[in-house]
């Protein structure tokens, strides 16, 4: 019996986009809106859909990739001219244990959906990134991190078990003791080892939605390091840092820390976000003057050196989720993210040098985020976090300006023994990737022959 | 007492979203669908979300001869019935239906004759009981035939007309008949279609359906804007309408 789900050759339509030169069809774009590639979009609605779906689409000869919310900034969630298997319909809870907080769910469930379910039951995510609009599968595949990395490690540290389905139909249950090599290859494995169908996630008990928050102004990397050391037992720490100021305001910022409050409070689910960034901003809106003004306002919004507050978890963890499609702020050409991790040995020196380079360039970057990674080992073979400092910046894409700066910063990162974050990258070269992730060759034996991504094709290309 | 709900076509996107609303309210559910494996996945999810009881039954609802026994078994499993929710249906391929009557007949059978059979049995059961809600998914596509999907549209037009008449007959006997007319909804069925970014969120559609059932409404356009859109479309003169590309 014919159903609409069986009709091939449909492309995800993005109505406000019309800049595709190749076929006239709108391309699939990542969160950074750069690059944009055509792909055939197919839904994975049921665990049994993969690999059965492959033959329905003629064998998917251009390759395939499972994607969730498409919130990666660059091309780890793209496959040029291939098949993107969107997992968001696969969002069922398979089991929940109220005593232990162990959730078993299909991989397309988003962290927002997990919170809606778990918060009223007194549980919170063990690790959360800066947006809740990512899927469980995506969180594993990128082995994401959060503000509690220094005490909790990466997301993968809290995923004791999952199922991996290969394109040859093999089902592998993976944990630290069963198929442990596949477990390590898949956590941080960028979705290339197979399709993650379900996973277990150990949730963390809470008694309230509220966070005991403290914000402290600082000037310079040394003050940041001192605050980091003093707060190493606080669950969540992160800093916003001003990358546009020089002179006495160089590397000024606000060190933000918080713990789940111990005073019982309401545990209702979050309301739906109501704001949506309505249009693509014109490209002149973000320039060095507007960003400098923003940064000054942000710095002085906190009037005192030190403020404390009891804050809801939404603005604490997800300030940008309040505005849906905020990436439109960067206009149609999009934004470029840059995030490094530099080991402690060169962390101070490297961070100062890179911040200097950014300030000198005059290229706007707000939302620069600085954090110390802790020493909890990442379970993934290709995981990004390592002990040291991580800095995340974003730049609007400006022809002839953003890319040369980015390339200089990437080169400096490598010289300081650091590496870049694939989930945010659109620019790293094959040489840079292979030098900073030497495990990639060991990883090759776990890669599924059907699966690939534009990121992977870029960084494993022979040069 | 927990509400007892029978869901026919429970693995469709809208049905599953609706079941999640009921599960959260602690309802008891029997799910009917074609695939045991898919039903099991949906059932596990609904149990975790708080459903008091979830049972499943595998059936092809085109098999109308089996309906009386199937319905009896489901009602037994629930220990009675408060709400019957008919959500099965197929979109069909319009072009195939234009070329091949058998394809069109299949759409009409699944979307019209099968629900007519189910509604006949269920409404008689509810009349005997003196109460009950029959909630049926039709479509805004049934409001006026359009060249892009008039076979599907006519199956839903027939269904809507049948439900109007049934309501006229059984409402005075305590039975509520709700005709649900969704506009395009973001589900696996519509992923990748033109403009699908702007389609309705299934969770919001589901909440509106459950609210309409509790309010004993007759007809639900969801999202509500479709009531206005279809009013306009119904009132375009045929001499103009036949030249449009809709």
Written overview of the protein:
The complex is a heterodimer of chains A (463) and B (246). Chain A is α+β, with helices and mostly antiparallel strands and 463 residues long. Chain A has a domain at 210-429: Alpha-Beta Plaits, CATH 3.30.70.2520. Chain A has 13 helices and 20 strands. In chain A, helix 9 (344-361) runs antiparallel to helix 10. Chain A is globular, with a radius of gyration of 21 Å. Chain A starts with 39 loop residues before the first strand and ends with a helix. By secondary structure, chain B is of the alpha/beta class. Chain B is 49% helix and 16% strand. Chain B contains nine helices and seven strands. Chain B has helices at 13-24, 36-48, 67-78, 94-99, 101-129, 150-170, 202-214, 225-234, 238-241; strands at residues 4-8, 28-33, 53-58, 83-86, 132-137, 175-182, 219-222. A seven-stranded parallel beta sheet of chain B has the order 3-2-1-4-5-6-7, with helices on both faces. In chain B, helix 1 (13-24) crosses helix 7 (202-214). Classes of the chains: A alpha+beta (463), B alpha/beta (246). The A-B interface holds A 1-5, 7, 10-15, 41-43, 45-48, 86, 89, 92-96, 106, 117 and B 13, 37-38, 41-42, 44-45, 48-49, 90-93, 96, 103, 106, 110, 187-198.
Task: List the helices and strands of chain B in order.
Answer: EHEHEHEHHEHEHEHH
Strand order of the largest sheet of chain B: 3-2-1-4-5-6-7
Low-confidence stretches of chain B are: none
Largest interface by residue count? A-B, 28 and 29 residues
Short description, anyone?
Chain A is of the alpha+beta class.
Topology:
The complex is a heterodimer of chains A (463) and B (246).
Chain A: E1 40-43, H1 49-56, E2 64-67, E3 83-86, E4 93-97, E5 102-106, H2 111-118, E6 123-124, H3 136-141, H4 149-152, E7 161-165, E8 171-175, H5 180-186, E9 195-202, E10 204-205, E11 210-219, H6 221-230, E12 236-241, E13 252-260, E14 275-276, H7 288-301, E15 306-312, H8 313-317, E16 323-324, E17 335-343, H9 344-361, E18 368-373, E19 388-396, H10 402-415, E20 419-420, H11 430-436, H12 440-443, H13 454-459
Parallel strand pairs in A: 1-3, 2-3, 14-16
Antiparallel strand pairs in A: 4-5, 5-9, 6-10, 7-8, 7-9, 11-13, 11-15, 12-13, 12-18, 17-19, 17-20, 18-19
Helix pairs in contact in A: 9-10
Chain B: E1 4-8, H1 13-24, E2 28-33, H2 36-48, E3 53-58, H3 67-78, E4 83-86, H4 94-99, H5 101-129, E5 132-137, H6 150-170, E6 175-182, H7 202-214, E7 219-222, H8 225-234, H9 238-241
Parallel strand pairs in B: 1-2, 1-4, 2-3, 4-5, 5-6, 6-7
Helix pairs in contact in B: 1-2, 1-7, 5-6
């Amino acid at each position: 019996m014919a159903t609409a789900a069986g009709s091939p050759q449909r492309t995800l339509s993005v109505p406000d986009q019309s800049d595709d030169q190749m076929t006239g069809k709108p391309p699939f774009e990542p969160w950074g809106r750069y690059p944009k590639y055509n792909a055939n979009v197919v839904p994975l609605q049921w665990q049994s859909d993969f690999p059965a779906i492959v033959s329905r689409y003629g064998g998917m000869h251009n390759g395939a990739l499972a994607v969730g919310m498409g919130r990666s900034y660059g091309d780890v969630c793209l496959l040029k001219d291939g098949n993107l298997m969107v997992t968001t319909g696969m969002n069922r809870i398979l089991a929940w244990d109220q005593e232990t907080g162990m959730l078993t769910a299909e991989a397309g469930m988003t962290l927002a959906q997990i919170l809606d379910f778990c918060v009223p039951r007194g549980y919170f995510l063990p690790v959360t990134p800066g947006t809740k609009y990512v899927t469980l599968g995506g969180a594993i595949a990128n082995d994401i991190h959060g503000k509690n990395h220094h005490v909790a490690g990466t997301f993968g540290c809290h995923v004791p078990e999952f199922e991996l389905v290969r394109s040859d139909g093999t089902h592998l249950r993976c944990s630290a003791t069963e198929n442990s090599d596949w477990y390590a290859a898949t956590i941080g494995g960028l979705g290339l080892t197979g399709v993650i169908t379900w996973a277990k996630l150990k949730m963390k008990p809470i008694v309230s939605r509220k966070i005991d928050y403290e914000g402290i102004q600082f000037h310079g990397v040394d003050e940041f390091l001192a605050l980091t050391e003093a707060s190493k037992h606080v669950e969540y720490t992160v800093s916003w840092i001003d990358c546009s100021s020089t002179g006495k305001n160089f590397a000024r910022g606000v060190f933000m820390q918080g713990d789940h409050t111990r005073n019982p409070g309401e545990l209702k689910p979050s309301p739906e976000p109501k704001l949506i960034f309505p249009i693509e901003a014109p490209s002149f809106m973000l320039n060095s003057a507007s960003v400098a003004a923003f940064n000054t306002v942000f710095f002085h919004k906190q009037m005192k050196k030190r403020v404390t507050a009891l804050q809801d978890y939404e603005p604490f963890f997800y300030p940008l989720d309040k505005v849906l499609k905020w990436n439109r702020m960067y206009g149609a050409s999009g934004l470029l993210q840059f995030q490094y991790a530099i080991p402690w040995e060169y962390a101070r020196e490297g961070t100062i040098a890179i911040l200097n380079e950014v300030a000198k360039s005059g290229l706007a970057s707000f939302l620069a985020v600085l954090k110390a990674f802790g020493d909890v080992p990442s379970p993934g073979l290709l995981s990004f976090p390592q002990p040291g400092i991580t800095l995340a910046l974003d730049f609007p894409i400006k022809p002839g300006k953003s890319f040369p700066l980015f390339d200089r910063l990437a080169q400096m990162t490598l010289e300081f023994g650091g590496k870049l974050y694939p989930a945010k990258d659109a620019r790293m070269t094959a040489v840079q990737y292979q030098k900073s992730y030497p495990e990639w060759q060991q990883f090759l034996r776990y890669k599924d022959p059907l699966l690939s991504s534009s990121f992977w094709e870029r960084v494993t290309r022979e040069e | 007492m927990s509400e007892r709900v029978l869901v026919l076509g429970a693995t469709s996107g809208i049905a599953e979203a609706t079941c999640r609303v009921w599960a959260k309210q602690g309802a008891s559910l029997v799910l009917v669908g074609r695939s045991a494996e898919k039903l099991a996945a949906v059932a596990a999810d609904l149990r975790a979300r708080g459903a008091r009881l979830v049972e499943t039954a595998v059936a092809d609802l085109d098999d109308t001869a089996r309906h009386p026994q199937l319905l009896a078994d489901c009602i037994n499993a629930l220990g009675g019935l408060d709400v019957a929710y008919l959500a099965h249906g197929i979109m069909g391929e319009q072009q195939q239906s234009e070329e091949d009557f058998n394809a069109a007949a299949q759409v009409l059978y699944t979307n019209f004759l099968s629900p007519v059979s189910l509604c006949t049995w269920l409404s008689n059961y509810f009349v005997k009981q003196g109460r009950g809600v029959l909630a049926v998914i039709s479509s805004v596509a049934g409001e006026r035939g359009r060249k892009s999907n008039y076979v599907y549209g006519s199956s839903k037009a027939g269904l809507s007309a049948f439900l109007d008449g049934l309501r006229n007959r059984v409402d005075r006997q305590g039975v509520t008949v709700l005709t649900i007319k969704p506009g395009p909804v973001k589900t696996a069925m519509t992923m990748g279609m033109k403009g699908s970014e702007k389609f309705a969120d299934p969770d919001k559609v589901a909440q509106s359906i459950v609210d309409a059932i509790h309010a004993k409404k007759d007809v639900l356009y969801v999202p509500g804007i479709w009531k206005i859109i279809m009013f306009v479309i119904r009132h375009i003169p045929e001499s103009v309408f036949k030249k449009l590309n809709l």
